[in-house]
Design brief:
Blueprint (H helix, E strand, L loop, with lengths): L14 H8 L3 H7 L11 E2 L6 E9 L3 H10 L4 E6 L11 H9 L5 E3 L2 E2 L2 H7 L3 E3 L1 E2 L14 E2 L3 E3 L2 E3 L4 E5 L2 E5 L4 H21 L7 H7 L6
Parallel strand pairs: 2-3, 3-4, 4-6, 5-7
Antiparallel strand pairs: 1-6, 2-8, 2-11, 9-10, 11-12
């Protein structure tokens, strides 16, 4: 990761592509990616019933000024990914910032760390994925000397590059590399159609699992 760099231009998928991903379950997206790109189960949707989906604008570190620079550079339909190092000691995002982001057309935030004002985040309907909540926030500046905007960041071993699409729902969150967006959409839709046809044909029928286990050497008693 490059520190002390601010990249003002990123390449984004089309908004229609992002919208298509927002309608797909995270679990199905992950299957289409070959089980890669899943963020840690510790990163959970803090705003139940909402879906996080948008092109990633990245902010390295928890500092408020770095995060504000990312917000300033973000465009409608983007989300901000705050690579705050996974700290559970202090929050680095809250309701006031969420309201401002929402006023600029940003569609959510992923914080590799803690957030606060979760009641407000839910009230305004701002999709938020984070490790948890705490009322204790940072005293700023906080690591401003090592920050960066729109550089690739690593969260729990998963690389998030600016312009990748992050999708989060009740199951968890997944990173879709920008170059794979179209292929993922096509694969998920095709798989869903095939699964629906398969299970429609099996309605009311035995799945044959007992016989399969018998063939595998199980003793049926």
């Amino acid at each position: 990761m490059s520190e002390r760099e601010i990249h003002t231009e990123i390449v984004r998928p089309a908004r229609s592509q992002v919208a298509a991903l927002s309608r797909l379950p995270v679990a199905s997206i992950l299957d289409a990616l070959g089980k890669t790109g899943a963020l840690s189960h510790c990163l959970r949707l803090q705003t139940p019933g909402l879906v996080l989906c948008g092109s990633a604008v990245t902010a390295l570190g928890p500092d408020v000024t770095v995060r504000r620079a990312a917000i300033d550079l973000a465009q409608p339909g983007d989300i901000v990914v705050v690579a705050a190092g996974g700290s559970k000691e202090r929050a680095c995002f809250g309701g006031v910032t969420a309201q401002h982001m929402q006023s600029r057309g940003l569609t959510g935030v992923l914080v590799d760390g803690m957030v606060r004002d979760v009641t407000e985040l839910r009230r305004i309907g701002f999709p938020t994925v984070a490790r948890g909540t705490t009322p204790l926030n940072y005293d700023y500046p906080a690591g401003i000397e090592n920050g960066a905007v729109n550089v690739p960041v690593i969260i729990d071993g998963v690389r998030v590059s600016p312009g990748d699409v992050v999708v989060g729902d009740e199951d968890g969150a997944v990173v879709v590399p920008r170059a794979q967006v179209d292929a993922v959409i096509d694969t998920v839709l095709a798989s869903a159609a095939a699964e629906a046809e398969k299970w429609w044909g099996r309605r009311g029928q035995s799945l044959g699992a007992v016989q399969q286990l018998t063939n595998a050497g199980y003793k049926i008693i």
